[in-house]
Amino acid sequence: LSGFLGAGKTTLVNHILSEQQHAKRLAVVVNDMADINIDADLVRNAAGEDLQGMVQLENGCICCTLRDDLVIELATLAQRGGLDHILVESTGISEPHPVAQTFSLRIESLANAVAPGEEGEAKRAALTAATRGLEALQDAAHLHSLVTVVDCATFVEHLHSIESLHQLGMGSMPGDDRPLAFLLMEQVQFANTLLLNKTDLVAPAESRKVQQLLRMLNPTAEIIRTLHSAIDVSALLSEPQYDESQFSTMPAWADELAKGPHSEADEYGISHFTIRRMGRPFHAGRWSECLRDQTLLRGVLRAKGCFWTQAEPTTRVDYSHVGRIGDVIVNQLWAQTGLDVLANWGQLKGRQPDPKELTGINRGIQRYQREAERLKNANLWHPLTHDRRIELVFIGDENMQRDVIEAAIEAAMLTEEELAIFLDSWGLEGPPQNPSMEIANPFANVPRCVKI
Predict the structure, then answer these.
(1) Could you read off the pLDDT of 390-444 as tens digits, one per residue?
(2) Cross-sheet strand order for the sheet of 300-309
(3) Which of 79-93, 203-217, 284-298 has the lowest average pLDDT?
């Protein structure tokens, strides 16, 4: 259970626990950033004697600093037996995706990541004892659903915030500079069920507008309108809804919105559009100027996608924009770039791979080949530049200037003359290493999770 502070998560837990018709045996894990777990006390008092187990995790967040503790407690509860469900109420600043990944992460990897020292050794010993015989947490407990509670009265307002969690005094650790708007977007995007709560606190038209925005941000999630987090508990606890593959590639909202228009959008003032261009990169300087133009993106509530530039044609840059904050990062490789790098691994490293490395290389090649085949079938493959593309989705309110944004993006791409020069330098070995129109690259210093 995820959701920002005050959205109604604890109220939801209490409602589930007080509902008797489902006849399920339940335990609860309550996470709180503070050293006093107020939410746990509220849950315990509401549940009475029907609760089969209560675990409190304080002074940290289960999506990062308390990840090991979460595995230890869930594995212990699950293997104890006698339970149908475990409800995990995360702290208001927790991201659901890392928590979900914890279920499939190998226990060995978790143990190896434990910090050294006496305290770390004790944690590693506890982790080993609680997970003995398990390769991953999902061997003892499967993830049933990801549920996010959304405060209808404050959601849009928070999306326009430019403050970080650290600035708001809400960080999970010193220097937690995650923007509040990005956190809310992660909580909505990685969910199977969205509870639009506190709908009574806004006008009907405003609640419908927020609901339509949620539908565009997460087209595959079930959206349930609630007052005081009251829902059909039996329905929530019935069929498992979580599918890890759903969140492993391009965000569902971007993929879904690219398929076509949603007729009800204009009625509520929320609309979207998609831009896809194959074989034509951005001019790095002009595109950088666009991203810095705050007036250009007026009315844009959410945007995300990927692009490439003539200044660095082998690099995929991922773009994310929420409210008034934008971000770029090099987070993954183009499929063809991945294939090229792995095929030339020995040459790049100056030695031949050992057997273990060779196994990893072959797996990587197979993965990129599958991705390349998928893109070809989706007509997202260029005969010369392959899967390198500009792919951007914009979602906004009635103030979003679609025509202006589309014109600015068109102007930021290479002109016909620039593109001809660029493609002429594209040899049999792939993209030019030193493009003839080489300029200072404004994206050279963006964070990089992968390097070639």
Answers:
(1) 999 898 888 899 999 999 999 999 999 999 988 888 765 567 655 545 567 999 8
(2) 271-278, 389-396, 300-309, 312-322, 325-329
(3) 79-93
> Above 90 in pLDDT, residue 299?
no
Q: Please, are residues 41 and 128 in contact by the beta-carbon 8 Å criterion?
A: no
Q: What pLDDT, in 10s, does the model give residues 187-200? A: 998 899 999 999 99
Q: Point out which residues pair with 440 in neighbouring strands.
A: none
Q: What is the rounded average pLDDT of the residues 196-223? A: 90
CA–CA separation, 448 and 91 (whole Å): 28
- Tokens 């991203």 -> residue: 291
User: Can you name the residues that pair with 224 across neighbouring β-strands?
Assistant: 195
d(CA 74, CA 444): 43
Other CB atoms within a 10 A radius of the CB of residue 242 amount to 16
How much is the pLDDT for 44?
Answer: 46
Which two structure tokens, joined as six digits, stand for 92?
């208001």
Q: Residue 231 and residue 242: Cα distance in Å, rounded?
A: 19
The residues, any chain, with a CB within 8 Å of residue 287's CB and separated by 6 or more, are 307, 309, 412, 413
Longest CA span, the chain: 75
| Beta-bridge mates of residue 67 | none
DSSP β-bridge partners for residue 389: 278
Torsion of CA 411, 413, 419, 422, to 10 degrees: 140
Backbone φ and ψ for 350, nearest 5 degrees, come out as: 80, 20
Dig out the tokens for 162 from the structure.
């430019």
Length of the chain: 452
Query: Highest mean pLDDT range out of 11-15, 105-109, 418-422?
Result: 418-422
